[in-house]
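We give its fold:
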Amino acid sequence: MISKGGATALRVMTYNIRYDTTADGQNQWSNRKANVFQLIKDRTPDLLGIQEALARQMTDLQTALPNYRHYGVGRDDGNTRGEYSAIFYRADRFDLLKSGTFWLSPTPTIVGSKGWDAAITRICSWIQIRDKRTQQVLYHFNTHYDHKGENARLQSSQLILNQIKTIAGTTTPVIFTGDLNATPNSDPYRTIITNTAFKDSYSISEIPHCGPNGTFSTFDVSNKMGDRIDYIFSTSHFKVLQHGALTDSNDGFYPSDHIPVLAENKYQQFPITVAGGNGDRNELNQLSYPRGIFIDDDKSIYIADSNNHRIIKWKLTLNIGQIIAGGNGKGNQNSELSNARDIIFDKENNSFIISDMVNKRVIRYFDRNQTKQQIIISNIDCGGLTIDKSGFLYVSDFEKHEVRRWKQGDKKGELVAGGNSKGNQLNQLSSPRNIFIDDDCSLYISDYENHRGMKWKKDAKEGIVVAGGNGQGNSLKQLNCPHGVIVDHLGQIYVADCGNHRVMRWCDGDKEGEIVISENGQGNQLNFPSGLSFDNEENLYVVDRANDRIQKYKKRFKLKNFFD
């Protein structure tokens, strides 16, 4: 199974470890607990819902898992008597904010109360935690339904949904795990997922479920696996990357009479509109077909507002922008721009450099002052701008299919990429657009009509395909008219895959990219994204061109494999 994990991904496990009883003979706890511990350690879940553990098993678990803390109580007395439905959480990742337990009965606050037609007392324990990596607050609820009472199982589902709404509200992310003693075609299961906030991770995993469907094992590997009765549910705040039932065994026996279920989630990316989004007009709270973008150290946003023929500055604390260049209608006079395409900042000269596309020029504005400007390059079809650590300017020309480096006083610039006529060979480009340069002076180019991202090392005679390059298309191996390109501190390459309405991420050597911001073209998705930029915390800003807005996405990490 191909699978993913990562710094902000959330690994969740549910595991009925079977209570400790001598009646199990060779499968009693003392003979199998080391295998239970090893299975958990091998998978390192961030959150672990345990069912059936007795107090002595809880002690064993906590001793064996020193990197975890736990919350749970015995179901019989709310202290140490009876089985726990406990939750373990990684101490290095989460701070515990609140915790509690309620009983699955008509009187959920009465300790030890038995519900409806249940054979024995049942509980649900919960924690509220803060993720130290993202500062996200979330809840985890964990339970074990009755094995005999059919009505008790149904009523338990309804009770838990009501309790979650009361305790966690409706806007905070929730994980719900447990052994429901109910199959997916049962009413208790359907109650949880029908017209509620919860989805079964099994059903919505990006990668199809791995392992057997059933989770009730009876210990013996040679026996047929029983029904699927162990579940991980989550609210829409999470995207499920993968889901699997783990079949680790020793000498022909599973460590418990259930096999654990493991799901990996990531927090859904809900962007913040930080500029525009108020229609396609020229008021100061509006944008019209924006293209390029630059973020300064104060997180102010500088936008090439193309169809408004202006550069506009947007402070994050304000809901309107400030014109810093152009804005006097389309034209070629000193105070005018014509379809501004890109903008960068030259720290050495304290100036902005702007691609004034239709006027076929690159202009420098000093001191953020429209009255002091300089045309530094004329007669150029500029698709993108970037500047290196030495202050040298790089400019792509989409008609000459090349990128040149310009030093102070240059009349022509030095060819650094392409320039061998239009084509798709490694020494050629085809209508290059946005460009980016890293600290090693490697140049990254959106090779627009070749539908690929190119990396051109310093002084190289040809480039390396680092994204796409497999024709125009929407598979993970392809791009469709790429625009913005940017590289983070890990060397991960982000590409605004304009024609596919998405942002892709590629690592060095990847055969396929990863969709980090989804497609669909309009509404809350992207519609022809163009420019990309990071702020100083590596939050990602996307120019959502045809939606006339700038979207901010919180910092994201590349995912790594962790399933066997």
Observations:
- The mean pLDDT is 93.
